[in-house]
């Protein structure tokens, strides 16, 4: 994460649906100022994508870019 906490790059980190669920839980409990989340080349399945999309519906979520 960069110094202003607005970017989190997790490229090629083998993030699975389970990891995505943990990330989703963290984002729900602390919406923070994260604006850019990069999950390029991970192992997200349908359930991981669905849990992340649910976070985007939260009006407190600041996420603008999801890769």
Layout of secondary structure:
Elements: E1 7-9, H1 17-29, E2 36-38, H2 46-56, E3 65-66
Parallel strand pairs: 1-2, 2-3
Helix pairs in contact: 1-2
Keywords: Leucine-rich repeat, Repeat
InterPro entries: Leu-rich_rpt, LRR_dom_sf, NLR
Pfam families: LRR_6
What distinguishing features does this structure have?
single chain; 67 residues; alpha/beta; 3-stranded parallel β-sheet; globular; LRR_dom_sf; NLR
Summarize the entry for a quick read.
The chain is of the alpha/beta class and 67 residues long.
Q: Given the C-alpha coordinates, what overall shape results?
A: globular
Q: pLDDT under 50 segments (min length 5)? A: none
Element-level helix/strand string: EHEHE
Q: Output the radius of gyration.
A: 11 Å
- List the strand order in the largest sheet: 1-2-3
Oligomeric description of these chains: single chain
Give the number of helices: 2
Please give the alpha-carbon distance between the first and last residues: 15 Å
Q: Please tally the β strands and state the result.
A: 3
Percent of sequence in beta strands: 5-15%
- Binned, the helix content reads 25-40%
Largest beta sheet, briefly?
3 strands, parallel
Mean pLDDT: 90
Structural class of the helices, strands and pairings? alpha/beta
Please give a structural write-up.
The model has no long low-confidence stretch (mean pLDDT 90). Helix 1 (17-29) runs parallel beside helix 2 (46-56). The protein is an alpha/beta fold. The longest helix is centred in the middle third of the chain and has 13 residues, at 17-29. The protein has helices at 17-29, 46-56; strands spanning 7-9, 36-38, 65-66. The protein has two helices and three strands. The chain is globular and about 25 Å long. The chain has a three-stranded parallel beta sheet, with no helix packed on it. 36% of the residues lie in helices and 12% in strands.
